[in-house]
Amino acid sequence: MNIVDGKEAVCRIEDFRVHYMTFDGPVKAVDGVNMEVYREETLGLVGESGCGKSTLGSALLKILPRTARMSGKVYLEGEDLMSKMEKEMQKLRGAKIAMIFQDPMTSLNPIMKVKDHFTEMIRTHKPEVSEEQALEMAARALEEVGISESRLNDYPFQFSGGMRQRMMIALSIVLRPALVIADEPTTSLDVIVQAQILQLMKEIQSHIRSSMILITHDLGVVAEMAHRIGVMYAGHLVELAPRDVIYYRPLHPYTVALLESVPNTDINDMDLDYIEGYPPSLLNIGEGCRFADRCPKVMKLCRDRTPPDVQIDEEHIVKCWLYADSFEEDEDNASG
Amino acid sequence: MPLVKVENLVKHFPVRMNFIKALFTRERKKVHAVNGVNFSIEEGETLGLVGESGSGKTTMGRLVLRLEEPTKGRIFFAGREITSLSAEEMRRLRREMQIIFQDPLASLNPYMRIGEAIRHPLVIHGIGENKRKQREMVLEMLERVNLRPAEEFYNRFPRQLSGGQRQRVVIARALITRPKFVVADEAVAMLDVSVRSQLLKLMVDLKREFNLTYLFITHDLATTKYICNRIAVMYLGRIVEEGSFRDIYTDPLHPYTKALISAVPEPDPKAMERKKKLIPEGEVPNPIDPPSGCPFHPRCPYVKEVCRTVPPELKEYSGDRKVACYLYD
Ligand SMILES: Nc1ncnc2c1ncn2[C@@H]1O[C@H](COP(=O)(O)OP(=O)(O)O)[C@@H](O)[C@H]1O
Ligand SMILES: Nc1ncnc2c1ncn2[C@@H]1O[C@H](COP(=O)(O)OP(=O)(O)O)[C@@H](O)[C@H]1O
Ligand code: SF4
Ligand SMILES: [Mg+2]
Ligand SMILES: [Mg+2]
Question: Which residue in B301, B325, B305 sits closest to B315, CA to CA?
């Protein structure tokens, strides 16, 4: 474990890449991401669809399809995940690192009762726990998310969307993992149920003191939930900073444009801004800034070379040539 | 005279049941999708219909266009009642009333070149003297929705386009017959923020240019700000409140509207912290067995005795504001 400026990093990701091998060439879904997740924080990961958020999230648990080639380093509480074999990963999943998906049904077995999901999860990791104790733990976890223990005997399909997501949350935290990855956990829920679930996630997190990576396309959800925010664009992490810095002092031209184009509810701001064009295809994508085609400040250099991660201050990183004066001559960093 | 008007519109669907179950069930259960809705839309105006999923928005949009037959109620278009027009009469009217759906991929034939897809309504309604003239009209429309070079886009297939481009195709196809009225059902909901705003801007511009009247259906309140003159909030098949974005957003009247607005996550941390959270417990009840009285009463913090029995009517509150709630009687 390493401690940075008094903040302890639970998870550290270094020059991390995921390329999907396809017939037509590699889809560079995650391409050189560096970041840390601090203990007890919520790190929001935002970006539009296809920018690589889910790929990054799932890569941390190593649950990607076979066609995905990973490189770089991921440390979880000091353990090097990339060198771990599948057997070892199985021991970590659920226990040290857990995932909450947009649609809980994809990760639940429809013909298994709720209680069996819990007992299986608990006893795989803790064989010493008796069936009875496991049920007790399950009941307590359900209670924490506001579900009566009488529902242990129900099947997942008997739950409403919101209740199912509560149950999924209970299941993911029952073993008190150090890191929870929530991938669009409220995206398919209606706004009032979403507000209930977000509130619950906040309470649970402060209660069990885990760290969370909250993946979402919704800039409202991260404003509400995250301590720090990472903005992804086309496989790159283009900006990473504390929440208010992202909203009120963003530097990356994409972050700036994104925030201007999101419909807000301020009745004094009736201008509708938007970004021209579309994100690029990640298939066989080459060197250069991936926002260059849509960027109002693009320079020649941007198209030729991938910008480095520029450290603006202790907590603010921007992947953009505009802020990289000292990098221009530095070939080594320019390819990062 | 409003361009579109509906009176006491009701739509009940039979509950989808499997055959065996249907054999043994006496009682025919119904989904109360739309439960007595009244509204009108003036020419050139955009009415936003917002609400959570299952509140009846899509059914409402389809009823207005008579893509769905109402169980009860009346529909007027340009002053004329269309509730019981024959299929042939409706077919002729369709060029004046169009619909844009949420999912462009599902509403485009994957094997039809997009130019031909847009030309299709011209063929159906016999607009344009010949194929060459129709082609010209399509190219012009492609230019207008920013699919350039138009000649090139004419020959592409839907799968060769991005989501945003496909939605432009769907808009072009809806507008090619120069309709007066367009129902946009979650037209920008599936798109990402940066692209969503592009399309919203396009729809606003086209509205002015083609003098359109929209029924803009969405679950996302924030998008209505830019395009709607008035907003109607739906809950369980009823309109519970109607007013301008400004009024609804800054001073919601109905307890459900208050809850809805307080639940919208603000893309601005300071605005979010200022906001009062009034999140009701529980979820929307099943429309097969909707609550008696006010549809919101089981979750409402201000519920009174009368709320449980008689549904409140949507009544004028002030100026152009309406609300269906006993707190304002
Ligand atoms: N199994 C796969 N094979 C090839 N490409 C994939 C696969 N899964 C995802 N991708 C591509 O990787 C990119 C990132 O996808 P994803 O991680 O799902 O993004 P997000 O979660 O931000 O929407 C996209 O371009 C997507 O098409
Ligand atoms: N063809 C149908 N048959 C049965 N029920 C339907 C049908 N269409 C819609 N419904 C039901 O009617 C209600 C309203 O649906 P809908 O109009 O699609 O709402 P919204 O667009 O607001 O999500 C829902 O409960 C839905 O399941
Ligand atoms: S690197 Fe260049 S193109 Fe990319 S965001 Fe910065 S200025 Fe724009
Ligand atoms: Mg995703
Ligand atoms: Mg709908």
Answer: B325
